[in-house]
Amino acid sequence: MRDQILVLDTLQRIDMELSQLEQNLKEYPVKISNYESEIEACREKLENSRKIKEEAIKNKLRIELDMAQNEDTIKKSEQKLFEIKTHKEYEALQKQIAEAKRNNAVLEDNLLQEMEKLEVVESRISKEEEELENRENEYSAKIADFKEKIDELKVIYQPKTEEKKKITSGIDRDLLSIYERVKKKNGYVLALAKNEVCTGCNMNIPPQLFNEVLTHSRLIQCPNCLKFLYTESEIKSEAKTG
């Protein structure tokens, strides 16, 4: 039975390697996606701030244009004051001038608000540009590293699956079915039997059954965890216990 134990041990080690490879092949693309999402989030945040700046500049220019038009109106109206001949026209023109000045006072407050907004958003843009650059430098290197690792894992994975197929083709179907069930339940399939104890689950092994394990007469599973039991003389340090 030692040969069967060694085959199962080899198969178990290959399965553990494949499991790790599959886990990495699943996790690495997720990590890449997370890094790319963080970069994109920084880029979108910066783009939004730039749009706010553009809008503030447009508002500032519009306000300045309105103020300039009002100033022109005031100037022309004040010049007309010396030309009009009736009191009624004089009052109407004075009213027009006062209204233009009031409008400019409001516009001036609005202009100050837009200028303050511009100052704040320009400071924010500067920080966000720096943040984006840092993220791109840091994460681009990590993304490239993970992509390289994925390529390396793909090269390793296929030969390893072929190796497994070759081994499983020589294993009895019933034994392989048991192996798969135990692996699904416990992860590890083999456990060292020592001093009438299964080291896989730390439960006692009945003396008669333990004696059979020692004789290597047949494959024996732990009554509790169902792992295949082996002794130190069978695999020594090569076997993996659960």
Describe this structure in words.
The chain is mainly α. It contains 5 helices and 4 strands. It has 2 domains: 17-168, Helix Hairpins (Orthogonal Bundle), CATH 1.10.287.1490; 173-238, no CATH class. It has a 4-stranded mixed beta sheet. The longest helix has 82 residues, at 87-168. Residues 237-242 have low confidence and may be disordered.
Topology:
Blueprint: H1 2-80, H2 87-168, H3 173-186, E1 190-194, E2 197-198, E3 203-204, H4 207-215, E4 228-230, H5 232-235
Total helices: the number is 5
Structural class estimated from helices and strands: mainly alpha
What coarse outline follows from CA principal-axis ratios?
rod-shaped
Question: Total strand count, please?
Answer: 4
Question: Strand share of the residues?
Answer: under 5%
CATH fold label of the largest domain: Helix Hairpins
Spell the H/E element sequence. Answer: HHHEEEHEH
Could you tell me how far the N terminus lies from the C terminus, measured between alpha carbons in angstroms?
20 Å
Kindly report the average pLDDT value.
93
Write the CATH architecture name of the largest domain.
Answer: Orthogonal Bundle
Q: Measured on Cα atoms, how large is the radius of gyration?
A: 41 Å
Estimate percent helicity. over 70%
Indicate the CATH class of the largest domain: Mainly Alpha
Low-pLDDT stretches: 237-242
Strand order of the largest sheet: 3-2-1-4
Q: How many structural domains?
A: 2
